[in-house]
Amino acid sequence: MQDLLDSALARIRDASTAEELEAVRVEVLGRKGVLSALSKDMGKLSAEERVARGKLINTSKQALESAWEERRDSFERAALAKRLDAEWLDLTIPAPGPRPGSLHPVTQIQWEIEDLFRSMGFSVLDGPEVETEFHNFDALNIPPDHPARDMQDTFWLEGGNLLRTHTSPVQVRGIEKLGPPLRMIAPGRVFRNETVDTSHEHTFYQLEGMMIDRHVSVGNLIYFMKTLLGAIFKRDVTVRLRPGFFPFVEPGFELDIRCLICGGPGCPVCKQSGWVELLPCGLVNPHVLRASGIDPAEWNGFAFGLGLTRLVMMRYAIDDIRWLQSGDLRFMRQF
Amino acid sequence: MKFSYGWIRSFVDGLDVPAEALERLITMKTAECEGVENPSPLLANAAVAMVLSAEPVEGSNHLQKALIDAGQHGRRTVVCGAPNCRRGLRTIWVPLGFKTIAGIASDGMLASAAELGIGKDGNGIIELGETDEIPPADSVIEIDNKSITHRPDLWGHHGMAREVAAITGKRLLHPIDPATLPAPGGPVKVGIEDLTLCPRYSALVFENVTVQPSPLWLQHRLMAVGLNPINNIVDLTNFIMAELAQPMHAFDRAKLAGETISARPAREGEKITALNDEEYALTTSNLVIADGAGPIAIAGVIGGRDSAISESTTSIVLESANFNASSVRKTSAALRLRTDASMRFEKAQDPHNTVRALARALELLPMLSPGIRLVGGLADSHGPLQEPGRVTFDIDWAESKLGRSLSEETVTEILTSLEFGVQNAGGRKLDVTIPTWRATKDIAMPEDIVEEIGRMVGYDSIEPKPPLVPCAPSYDPPEREFLRRVRRMVASQGFTEVSNYSFVSEEDAKRFGLALEDHVRVLNPIAAGQELMRTSLLPGIWRNVMENARHLESFRLFEIGREIHKNAVGLPDERPHLAAAIFTKDDGRASLFELRRMAECLAVDLHVRPAEPRSWEHPTRCAELWWKGAQIGRLSELHPSLMESGRAAVVDLDLTLLLELAPAQASYTPVRKYPTSAFDLSVICNARERAGTLELEIRRYAGDLAEAVEYVREYEGAPLAEGRKSVSFRVVAGAADHTLTAAEITGVREKIIEGLTGLGYELRA
After folding, report:
1. Could you report the per-residue pLDDT of B637-649, keeping only the tens digit for each?
2. How much is the mean pLDDT over chain B?
3. Is the domain of B365 the same as that of B282?
4. CB-based contact (8 Å) between B497 and chain A?
5. Cβ A194–B526 below 8 Å, yes or no?
6. Percentage of residues of chain B with pLDDT beyond 70
7. How confident is the model at residue B388 (pLDDT cuts 50, 70, 90)?
8. Could you give the ipTM of this predicted complex?
9. A59 and A112 both lie in a single domain
10. B683-717: per-residue pLDDT in tens?
11. What sections of chain A are H helices per DSSP?
C-alpha cells in the first residue's frame, strides 16, 4: 500500500510532460484510479481498519494532489514562459497608422488669446470677410477720399463690396449685435492688396478688441493692455503709448512694449530703440459710436487691434511670412 | 517726409535739444520718426579755401596739383581733377588725410557741391562768391508719412517747428509778415468756376526776373529734405512748400495767352504736356489752371511744360492756390502721378495759407533774383473763408477721458503753445478756438483736444487703472466652440491644418467644374490666378496635395475656411467648410474609408449615397454624404488625371449645415431591460450591388422590432457564380417591453427574407 503511494508520488514528480502527468493523474487520482480502487474494498474491512484505511487514503490523496498541482503548475509556467518568449516583438519598428496631426500656428495662437479674453469676460465675435464699404470705412470715420484709405490698399469686388482690410468693422457689427456695455474681440482673416514678400502678405490675421462702458479712460486702456500683454508674453511687460493716427479712435495711439529681447538698452530686434511697436489702440471715436447706433455722451470705450500673424511670427521666430499660407506640411507639422 | 533740423531750429527760439533727442520727443508727442540722418557728412569739417596756384600734373591730361590756403588749416597741397580748379578760385576743402595720386601726396580734397550734399552741381569743385559761407552741417529727421496724414500743417517745416516749440517750451518764430503784401488788384485776373474745387487762388506777378542757380544756403536746404535744386524761381516755390506746406507754381508770364487765369474742370479731349515731359489726356473730373489758350497746369498736381520757367524767363506769375483735397487725390490717382504738391493738397491744406506763402516769396525773391520787381497788386480770388472753429472744452470731462488730473493752467499753456485760442468759459470750461491750419480735417470736437492735451502732458504721466466693468457672462456664439471641436477632432485623427488663400484662379475653378459666373470677382487682383473668390476649398487642397506629394510619401491635411457664394443683392454668403485629404501611394481604398470615418465622427450615422461623378472625381469612387435628411458633403478620390503620382481621397463638409443639424445636447433613453436576439443573413447579389442599399432594404422589411442591422462581411468566389457576391448582415431584434419570443424573431427574419426575395435577391441561410 505505502509502496504503491510512494511509487505514484515518484511518477508524478518524474513526469516529464503535461501528457505524462495527466496519464499518472488518471491512473492514480482518477475515478478508476488506484485510490478509488483502494476505497472500493473498504466495505470488507473492520471498523478500525476502515478508519485507518480512510485516514491513509485521505493523507495519501492530499499528498498526491498537492504533488500533482505543483507539477501541473510548473508545466503551465513553462508553457507560458515558452509562449511569451515566442511572442518577442520589436517595438522599435515604426507604428502603423497616421502620424499625429497638428493645428495651424495661427489657430493655436488665436485660441490662446481667445481663451485669455474669455477669462476676462469678453465675447468672441466673428464678422464677414467680404465687407461693405460702409462697415470697413465710412462707419469707422474713414470717408471716401480720406487719405487714410491710402494706408490700406484694398481689394475691391464686383458689386461695390470689398475684402475687409482690418477686423475693425466688427467693432461696429459688435456694438450693433451686443449693445452697450460690452467687451468683445473679433479675430479673423484680413486682406491688403500688396505684393507678397518675406515680410508682407496680402492675406493675414488680426484680432480686434473693444470695451464699451460708461466711463472708460486712457488709464484703463493702459492698465488693460499691460495686463493682457503680460499674459500673452507670460512675463511682466512695460508699455508706452505715443500718438498714432487711426480715424476710428480719438485719441489714437501706437502702443510699444519694452523690447523683450534686450530689455531696453537696444538690440537688432528693436532696431536699437529699446521698444517694439506692437499695436494700435485708442479711445473709440464718437463717430464710430454714433454710426453703431449708440450715444457718445452716454457711452465710450477703448479699442485695439492685435496682429495675430505678427504675434505668431514673433512667438516662433518665423523668418518668412509666406510659410503661413504655403500649405507646406514640412512647415506646418512643426507646430 | 524729411525734416531739416537746422530749418526747424531757425523757427524755434533757442532750441537746444540735439536732433537725436528731438527725434525721440517728436515720436512720443507728435508723429512717428524713422531715424536721424546726416545728409552731408563731409560738411562737418569743411573749410573755405583759396586756390593759390594750380599746375598740370605730369603724365595726366586732367589732374592738377593745387596749392591752397585753407584759412586756419594753413596751406595744403591737393591733387584735383576738376576742370574749374584754377588760381584765385574760392572753394571748399575737406580734410580727409593724405592719399597718393599720380605719385603726389594729396592732402584732403577740394569738393563739388554735389559731393558736399549742398547743391546739385557735380561737374567741378564748388565756386564760392566773395561773401558765401559754408552752410552749417545739418541733420535730417525722417517722419513716417502715414503718421501725419491727418496733419496738413506738418507737411512743412514751420508746422513741425510749432510742435517742437510746444514740446520744448520755446518760442515759435514766424517767418512771414503779411503786412508786406500789396493791395488787391493786379495785372492778371483770376476766375474760379467752382469754389468747392478751388476755394482760393492767389497770385503775384514779377518782372525783371533773372533765372539763375539759387544761393548755396537755399540749395542746401532743398537737398537736405530730398528736393532737387533747379533754378532760383522753381527752388523758391519748392522752398516755400517745404517750409509752409503751401505748394506753389511759377508760370513764365510771356508764355501765357491773355491776362486771365482760370481754375476750371478740363474740357473733354483736352491734353497737357507736363513738366515731366509726359502728355496727359484730361477729363472733366480733372481740375486745371488755364489761360486763354488752354490748360497750363493740372491743378494741385503739376505744371505744364509750355509755360515753365526757363533761362530766358524775365517775368513770372507766382501761383499760390488752394485745391479740394479729394479732387486732387482723384486726379492724381487717375493720372498715376503723385507729386510733392498733390501729396500736400490731399491732406486738405488751409486756404488761409496762400497769401502767407506769397508774403514769404515777396521777402525772399529780391535775395534770389536781384533787381526783381513786383508788378501791380495781389490777385486773390476766393469764396467766404471759413471762420476759425470753436469748441467748448470741459477740463473735468477731459480728466475722465485721460484718467489723470489736469490744471487749467497746464491745459491753457499747451493749447496756447500750439496756437489755439483759449478763453475761460466759466468754471473749469474753456472756449477754444481752432487754428485754421488744424481745422480743415483734423480738429473739430472736444475729443480731438483731449488728444492735444494728452500727448503734450505725455501718456506716460497717466496711472494705469483697472476698469470697472459689469459682472456678466459673455455672449459666446455656438460656432466658435463647434469649429474648435471640429479642428481638434480632425487634427487628432492625424490631419495637419493648412491655410489657403480665399482667391482661386479661373483655371482652377474650371478644373473643379465650378461655373465662373457663380464666383464673386476681384476687380483689382494682385496677381494672375487670384481673380475669383473661392466657392470651394478643393482647388486649394488639390494644390496642397500636389505640392506636398513632391516631398512626402503619404500625408493627411485639412483646411477649415470659408466658401464665398454670390448673392443677388447684399453681401455674399460665407459658409465655413471642412476639406480634408489623404494622400497615399497604395490602392487608395483605406484612405476613402478613413475619411468617411472622420466624417462619421462629426455626423454619427451619416448615410453614404451614390453620386453622379464630377469631372474631377474618380468616376467609380465618389459618394454623397447625407445626414438627417440633408446633404452635408461629398467624399471622393481625385481623378487620376489630376495627379502626378499616388492617389488622394478628399472629403468636403458644409460646417454650417453640420452645426445646424447637430443636436444642441444629448438625449437620454433608458437602457433596455429585455435582452435582444441576433441572427445572421447572407444576401447573394451582383458584385457591384451596394451594401448600403441592401442594408436599407433589410431595415425596411425588418420593421420596428429590428434594433440594428450591421454589415458583417462579404464574399466573392466559389461556389458563387462569376460577378456575384454574398453580403452578410447581422440583424439584432428586440422590444422595449418584453423579451421576444422565438416566433416573433422568426417573424422578423421571414419578413426580411420574403421582402428581399421579392426584390429578386437570393438568400443563404
Report:
1. 999 999 999 999 9
2. 94
3. yes
4. yes
5. yes
6. 100
7. confident
8. 0.86
9. no
10. 999 999 999 999 999 999 999 999 999 999 999 99
11. 2-14, 18-29, 34-40, 47-86, 105-119, 133-136, 169-178, 218-233, 286-291, 308-316, 329-332
Same domain membership, residue A312 and residue A222: yes
Residues B401 and B263 in one domain: no
Task: Please give the helix or strand (H or E) that residue B696 lies within, else none.
Answer: helix B691-702
Contact B498 A329 (CB under 8 A): yes
Residues of B in contact with A215 (CB under 8 A): 400, 468
* Cα–Cα distance measured from residue B419 to residue B438, given in angstroms and rounded to the nearest whole number: 10
Report if residue A17 sits inside a domain. Answer: yes
CB within 8 Å: A104 and B552? no
Say yes or no: B520 contacts chain A, CB-CB below 8 A: yes
Per the structure, how many domains does chain B have?
6
In this complex, which of B27, B149, B488 lies closest to A147 when CB atoms are compared? Answer: B149
What total number of domains does chain A contain?
Answer: 2
Domain membership flag for residue A230: yes
CA angle (A31, A32, A34) in 5-degree steps: 105
Contacts A159 to B, Cβ<8 Å: 520
Q: Is residue B530 part of a domain?
A: yes
Nearest to B556 among A101, A104, A193 (CB): A101
- CATH of residue A290's domain is 3.30.930.10
Domain range for B733 = 677-764
Smallest CA-to-CA distance from B244 within B339, B300, B317, B162 is with B162
Alpha carbon B97 to chain centroid, angstroms = 48
Q: Residue B17 and residue B256: Cα distance in Å, rounded? A: 48
B interface test, pick of A193, A220, A239, A323 with most B CB neighbours within 10 Å: A220
Q: What gap in Å lies between CA B62 and CA B359, rounded to an integer? A: 48
What phi and psi, each to the nearest 5 degrees, are found at residue B238?
-70, -35
CB of B458 within 8 Å of any CB in chain A? Answer: no
Give yes or no for a contact between B82 and B110, defined as CB atoms under 8 angstroms apart: yes
Statement to judge: residues B731 and B594 lie in one domain:
no
B614 at A interface, C-beta within 8 A:
no
Whether residue B448 has pLDDT greater than 80: yes
On the question of pLDDT at B634 being above 90, the answer is yes
- Contact between A148 and B149 using a beta-carbon 8 Å cutoff: yes
Q: Do A247 and B574 touch (CB under 8 A)?
A: no
B471 part of a folded domain: no
Does B529 reach chain A within 8 Å, measured CB to CB? no
How sure is the predictor about A151, in pLDDT bands with cuts at 50, 70 and 90? low
C-alpha cell at B609: 449615397
Contacts of residue B329 in chain A, CB cutoff 8 Å? 145, 147
Domain that holds residue A194: 106-332
Contact (CB<8Å) A195/B526? yes
Q: Is the confidence at residue A149, as pLDDT, over 80?
A: no
